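Sanity check

After download, print the first record. It should look like this:
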Amino acid sequence: MPTKRDYYEILGIQKSASLDAVKKAYRELALKFHPDRVPHEKKKEAEEKFKDISEAYAVLSDANKRALYDQHGHAGIDQRYAQEDIFKGADFSSVFQDLGSFGLGGGLFEEIFSDLGYDFFGSGSRRAQGPRRRGRDLQIAVEITLEEAATGVEKTVTVPRYEMCSVCSGTGARSGTKKAVCPQCKGSGRSVSGSRGFFIQQACPRCLGEGSVIQSPCPQCNGEGRSKVTRKIKVKIPAGVDNGSNLRIRGEGEAGQSSHGDLYVIIEVAPHGLFQRHGNDILFETSISLSQAILGGDLVVPTLSGKVDMKVPAGTQSGSLFRLKGKGIVDLHSRNLGDQLVRVNVEIPRRLNPQQRRAIEEFARLSGENIKESFTDRIKKTFK
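Expected structure tokens:
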């Protein structure tokens, strides 16, 4: 059997630590290692640590147990107390009354355990009852255009979900009948489980902590208390959303015992035939003729809000990038407008008629270029 670690070492405190110091140490470690507050791959390790720190606190927060432990160590505790008795009288609830130093609500620890249906023996925390289950969150994808992402839009989505049964009003029992006392927990709503000295009261698996069971189920919902319906829900999509953005619609998820869940709307922005989005900026590519690139001129450019005129300066190089201020997409948070970037590619003609060719040759001659010189002649000159 592995040797137990020192309780003071587990909590990271000195042997002379005050009761307040014991509570503070336990509070910090319990919040850090609670199994529901760690990544899945670390859950098993966290469960072991959580059990160890809870046992250490149960002993060191009790004056009699602590004195016995200080005098005889683990042997004194093991001889005097059965494993489940170690937790009797330990005040877990008061440890979490004030979590201001953690920036957390004071009911956080109680909320964690009430959601799981847990209650420590003798802790003074509320009687174990079935967790008042919140309805399941739902998720749905909505496709919109780039123009709709830029301006915002209202969409109607169709959501299949469970809602409270209209026949039994959510009780699950046939009209005119009542629930019976649960035969497994005898109406207490609790069951006891534990290991390695860490014992908890948990919601009864038969009645889910309610203390009662349905003998004659509602024919509409078969005793579930919920029935499946399809709802049409209007969703306001704000300007500036991007592909993968998600919107939470509170209370539009499935019905639960305590409250409805939420509906998460995942935005999918369809590809656009003209524009590419880069953050809040829009990229548009176009081609201009060789003469436009050399001489400059006006260009009509499409934007998300309509066509605009843009000047192309003389001597524009292929691949040049121009910026149209404020013609992009509004930022979802700051509300600042992005820009539209216009990339200009110079189109080189593949074929020239005789007049065009003579004009280009004349231009080359005036520029001092010998375009008629063969490649072989140029090689010879290079190595002469």
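If your output differs, re-run the checksum step. Summary of this record's structure: The domain at 7-120 is CATH 1.10.287.110 (Helix Hairpins).
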